[in-house]
Design brief:
23 helices; EC 2.4.1.-; 2 domains; GPI_mannosylTrfase; glycosyltransferase; mainly alpha; disordered N terminus; Mannosyltransferase
Length: 542
Amino acid sequence: MKRKPCSVVPPTEDHDEKPNLFKRKDDETTSKAGFFSSSKQILTLCLVFRMVNSLLVQTYFNPDEHWQALEVAHRIAFGYGHLTWEWSKGIRSYLHPMMFVPLYKFLSFFGLDAPWFMIRAPRLLQSVISSVGDFYLYKLAHRIFGERVAQWTLFSQLVNWFTFFCFTRTLSNNLETVLTLVGLYYWPSFRHSSKHFLLASRKWGLVVAALACAVRPTSAITWLYVGLLELFETKDRIKFIFLEIAPIGSLVLGFTCLVDWLMYGSWIFVPLNFLKFNFLSSGGDYYGTHKWHWYFTQGFTVMLFTFIPFTIAGVFKSRQWKLFGLMAWVLGLYSMLGHKEFRFVMPVLPIALMFSGYSLASLEDTVSKDINRKISSDLRNKCPSRMQFGLFFLLVTNLPMALYMSLVHQRGSEDVMNFLSHEALEDRVKSVLFLTPCHATPYYSTLHRNLPMRFLDCSPSESRETLDESDRFMIDPVGFLSDMVKGWAVPSHIVLFDSQEKQLKEFLISHSFIEIKRFFHAHFKVDRELQGSIVVYTLTSQ
């Protein structure tokens, strides 16, 4: 179907069937863009925004942020810290936790390993990494669609509530997301220029893709689609496979195996172990399963939130089917797995927001064209109001959500460990028992004192009929604790949620424990009964 020439401008650089909106006006727009006229300024904006973002994130989201990253790094840097069962099974690579070891060493060397820095410095480091992802998303959108779409894409990325809430957390999924955005920028299938540049660009894309897969083996889902797309389009398939994929993949895999060999003390092939546990044996299902449509009806839709209509409009207006295909491919394959989490599909959220950026730029262009045509004042007032309403709608729905989830919801887990770390610094903590669902709080990486601590284990058992400690405690708190005290080393502090405290309060008082601190946690329940607050009890006779 032929489109109006005023709405779609032929690309100056790209040669593809996809429309490339606003290219004709980009030179003029860039010269007037001010702040957006310099890559350094854009990167600075992303960096400053994410650093402030990281300081505003004060809530608990996913245990892996602490237990699979910072806890491991803390153990390497300081000699103590808990390794979960995944590390004994060899299904985690040390590549991601090693990023935080130099930071911990730096803090220790300069005497900055105080509670404030130990809690916030890792997220500040992650904010630097995440800002690179924001910057490359802007560059990717600029390559494909032009300057104005890139600006609105960056707006969408920074305003989206889930990106604000999650992107500065020390999850391996966030590093995977950054590497995915960098890799897609260098990948030839998603941009078009000279052949010489394509070949050099493709090699960089392969290096970054390999690193993404090393950090998280499931990233292969993304890069399988991208690789097959390139294999279908390229004319030098043999060279692509044997002179690029094979050597680059082997080098990165060899480097990863070397790092893991040094840390594990033996040769461990993490990708294979990861594949066996999560795909061949469905080990991840132990931690819960969802219906196949969960990402489409709940997970990804919640992440996009009010950007959904803008994303859908952007998909059809841009006709960038390759990018849409990547998003659909990733969501489709992850939907086949029983165990699902929001963070698993984090790498395709920026792609969806790029389509939203296209839709917003298109809306802005409609307003500009109507004004240029000098339409009646009534219509002129209506067009800008539609654009303003769209922006107001996105801001008023996403910003409160972002701030509430980052500052309020489930903050008790972080606050209680912050409190205990200050108490330990004053030598008022001897040992801690966590009577909570397993991994419900940070651990040694926040306490930063080598004290005896105990939490309820939830490692998978050989038989799925066997209940772990965490489940047994949640079913019968009083009976579980009655059995535990028969042979326990009495802790100086006990941490538990108010939902279990109601049943255990008399028991704790009878064993000489009193409440010393209570922290708000949440207004509504998430996975289980409402955990409104988290409470600290201390032994009176110590």
